[in-house]
Each structure stands twice: as structure tokens, then as C-alpha cells.
Amino acid sequence: MIAGISRGTDMITFKEVEKGYLVKVPYEIKDDFKAIFKTAKWSAGDTAWFVGPRSLKKLERFQEETKDALAEIEAKQVLEEEAELTQKEIDGVLKSLECISNNFEDLKTSIAKKKELLETLNAKRAEIESVKENFEAAQKENENLNKQIEEKIKGIIDVNDLETAIRKMVWSVKQGKSRDNRSYFEEAQEVFKDASNKLEEINMKSKMIDDIASANFNRSSYGDRDYVGKYSVNLDTVIQSLEEN
For a pLDDT cut of 90, what percent of the chain falls above it? Predict the structure, then answer.
């Protein structure tokens, strides 16, 4: 004979065996069972309590009396399971919120850095534009000054003649130390001597022109003291080399 009441997955069941009954009791009311069935013995092999043969009515009464208790326990467990589920949901929401919050902070930091970088780039661009404008203005001013100076020195020295003369001097040096090359060198050098004299007449001088005018043909090879190939003769270098005598 097997009898019992259900409580979720648990129930009070008892089975008649030789010399008594094997009773299975939910853990929650174990102590209540032992308080009533003081002589009950635990059977490990059957995982159940063993009570004597005269315990049937007592078992039926205990079974009936514990219905409400088991129902209450079950209701409590349901609430606890729901509460546990709710807590898990809350924990999940909180974790998601924390993750979103961290991502938001990272995003704000990234935005702040990008704004700072953008402000720096805008400032640098404005600075570059300002420098560019100033440079272009300085270039124009330099060109205007060069034109003015060029006009002033046109009647005194001819820069084109100086450029042609230095090329002849360099060429003659490269041809070797012959008498003809020396004559060609000194003929071209006269252009620089003439320019030096004309500048001196207006209390001006040019170290570059003077150095070329005084160069020694015999010491004018590459690497020598008077090597004329080291000079770049043009309007800008001539103007830059001018100074009061």
C-alpha cells in the first residue's frame, strides 16, 4: 500500500513493508515528523523513515494535517523562486546599465578629446593661414624692394653681365691652367672689377663681387682658396651682398 499527497515535486508517501511502513517526508517538515514519530528510524538503503505496523492511522492523520503546511511551504518556495528570478532580472538590468554607463563615459571622453583636437587643428589652421598671409606679403614686399633696387643699380652695374662673366671664369678654370684659359678668365674678371669700381664711386661695395674681382687664376681650381665656382651670382645674391662702403 502506497499513499501520499503531492507538493510540487515533493510529497508525503508511505509504503507498507514487512513489520511496518517506509515513510518519505519532505525535508521541510522532517523535524515535525520526527517529533510525532519518535521511534522512527532512518533507513539509508531506502532513503526513508521506518515506523512500526500500528502507525497507519497516525500517518494518515499526519498526512492530512500537513497539507496546509506543505501548501504554505510550496507557496513560499514559489515566491522565493519568483523573487530570485526577479533579482536575477534586476542584476541583469543593473549590469547592463553599468555597461551602458561605462560606454557612455568612454564616449564622452572620446568626444571631449576630439573636440579638443578639433579646436587645436582650427587654431593651427588659423595660425598657418596667418603665417601664409604674412609670408606672401613679405614675398611681395621683397619682390618690390628687389625691383626698386634693381632699377637703382641698373645704371651702375649689369647683373646679367656678371652672370655671364662668372660662367666664363668657371669654364676657363675647368679647361686647365693654360695661357689662353688665363686670358679668358681675366677678361671675364674685368666685368667684376668694373662693377666693384662703380659701386665704390657711390660709396657701396659687395664682398662677393670684390672676392671674384680679386681671385687669382692660379688658385681658382676646385678646392682652392679663390675657387670662383662656389659663388652663385644673380640679382638676389648681388642685392644681399651690397653694403655701404
Answer: 46
